[in-house]
Amino acid sequence: MAASRLELNLVRLLCRCETMAAEKRDPDEWRLEKYVGALEDMLQALKTQASKPASEVINEYSRKVDFLKGMLQAEKLTSSSEKALANQFLAPGRVPTTAKERVPATKTVHLQSRARYTSEMRSELLGTDSAGEPELDVRKRTPCRTHS
After folding, report:
1. Which residues pair with 33 in a beta bridge?
2. Where is the stretch described as Disordered (predicted)?
3. H and E: helices and strands count for the chain
């Protein structure tokens, strides 16, 4: 069965959102959040269509949209440990969105965000900045010398 116009638009926007999620974004970037909201609306409309796709396909779209929504919510958390914990509970898509992908883009985004949050936690714990250099406000400590 041929995909409807709505389904094609949903897949196109879903691919765009997955690409945006994989890129490093400015914290003030608002587009991805709006696009994910539009994806939710399109998904609801697709579920009510008379000529809707198979339920497995709709479930996969839902999984990917929920993943993107959860990822956006995790990014809003304050501490990196909370972000990492929230990221563990996200379920990426199981099937690639397009035929060009070998690995689902949501799985790639999931792994990238996990690595980013782990790196943030490490720098918080060790007191280093993103370049791996110790922060300037950390006191330099010298080894104790014992008198013999």
Report:
1. none
2. 116-148
3. 5, 0
Question: Which element (helix H / strand E) includes 11?
Answer: helix 5-22
Backbone angles phi, psi at 6, to 5 degrees: -60, -45
Residue 104: C-alpha distances to residues 43, 45, 108, 109 (Å): 19, 24, 7, 9
pTM for the structure as a whole: 0.68
Instruction: Round to the nearest angstrom and report the end-to-end CA distance of the chain.
Output: 87
For 13-65, give the DSSP string. HHHHHHHHHHS---TT--HHHHHHHHHHHHHHHHHH-TT---HHHHHHHHHHH
Q: Give 128's strand partners.
A: 134
Residue range 62-107, pLDDT digits in tens:
989 998 998 888 888 787 777 777 777 777 766 666 666 666 777 7
CA gap 74, 79 in Å, rounded:
10
* C-alpha to C-alpha distance for 80 and 22, rounded to whole angstroms: 18
Rounded-to-integer distance, Cα 75 and Cα 88, Å: 13
Which residues contact residue 123 at a Cβ distance below 8 angstroms, ignoring those fewer than 6 apart? Answer: 129, 130
